[in-house]
Amino acid sequence: MSIITILLPIFFVFGVGYLAQRFLKLETRVLSNLALYVLVPLLVFRTFYEQEIDSSYGYLSIYMLGLCFALIGLVSILSKIYGYTESERCGLVLSSAFMNNGNYGTPLVLFLFGTVGMETAIVLMVLQQLLMSTLGVYYAAKGSPDHDGIKAALRAVRKMPMVYGAIVGLLFQWLHIPLGTIRDGVDLIADAAIPVIMVTLGMQLANIRLRAIDWRKLSTALSLKLMIAPLIATGIVVLMPLDPLTKQIMIIMAATPTAANTTMYAIQFHTEPQNVSSATLVSTLSSLVTMPVVIYLATTFV
Q1: For a tag on the chain, would you pick the N or C end, based on fewer CB atoms within 10 A?
Q2: Is 56 within 8 Å of 246 (Cβ atoms)?
Q3: CATH number reported for the structural domain that contains residue 198 in this entry
Q4: Is 4 exposed, middle or buried (0-12, 13-18, 19+ CB in 10 A)?
Q5: Whose CA is closest to 266, among 108, 96, 122?
Q6: Can you give the residue range of the structural domain that contains 285?
Q7: Do 278 and 210 form a contact (C-beta atoms < 8 A)?
Q8: Are 208 and 281 in contact (CB under 8 A)?
Q9: Three-class SS string for the chain?
Q10: pLDDT digits 0-9 by tens, 216-255
Q11: Could you read off the pLDDT of 165-216 as tens digits, one per residue?
């Protein structure tokens, strides 16, 4: 019951964003850009400014790459079996290989474990954004009629502000540059990041329309994202020399729904946008059922 009570405030905030968008018809891109280019970079800056780099960062990177490529490999195998086109395969990759650990996972970790788990969650968020802005953009562009994968991915990486936030935070830490009273301003903006990105996700979900759903593709994406992904994650992290809390966060993050950014990529590059957006919406709603199970198993047996 306590797990449900943890999820309810999160979905309440999503719901506020959803209702605000349905009734007010706000420009979601403005709020999304505010979070992406202002709030989150300062949140990432603060994390990397405060936290020293150690060997756990390497393990987190291995985990993220291993999980992503394992899911892409499974998608490729299933696409061969089902006879999917390259565009359909790329759309399925976008629907199942990238987790929503920004809008969903990081707030969830905050509710579950408090600030003690936020450092790990934010590092995973940065790594996931790097993967989405490289591999995610690559597959979105690869499945499009223009097929501009590598160039589009490189352009996207150069525009990722949270990466620069991490770099600047590390430089400030290594050079021992004090923030002084500016630190209070950084804290105010950084603390606003999580609520804003949660509301933004609710607004983005309100813009998704379910039409002509391909149920086989959707069920495949949901199975891979919500059930297979945490199993793969468990297999990866169980042998890593990390503390139990970090392992639990990694497994829980793997069970988060389809990343909202992949919907934007799919729409931008015309790569199965209907199927990808459907996977984002339905996986987010379905996680109300699957996430409590994953949280219970991860926190009980890991």
Answers
A1: N
A2: yes
A3: 1.20.1530.20
A4: exposed
A5: 96
A6: 2-301
A7: yes
A8: yes
A9: CHHHHHHHHHHHHHHHHHHHHHHHCCCHHHHHHHHHHHHHHHHHHHHHHHCCCCHHHHHHHHHHHHHHHHHHHHHHHHHHHHCCCHHHHHHHHHHHCCECHHHHHHHHHHHHHHHHHHHHHHHHHHHHHHHHHHHHHHHHHHCCCCCCHHHHHHHHHHCCHHHHHHHHHHHHHHCCCCCCCHHHHHHHHHHHHHHHHHHHHHHHHHCCCCCCCCHHHHHHHHHHHHHHHHHHHHHHHCCCCCCHHHHHHHHHHHCCCECHHHHHHHHHHCCCHHHHHHHHHHHHHHHHHHHHHHHHHHHHHC
A10: 899 999 999 999 999 999 999 998 999 999 999 999 999 9
A11: 888 999 999 999 999 999 999 999 999 988 888 888 888 888 877 776 788 8
Longest dimension (CA), the chain: 60
Burial of 259 (0-12, 13-18, 19+ CB in 10 A): buried
Amino acid sitting at position 294: V
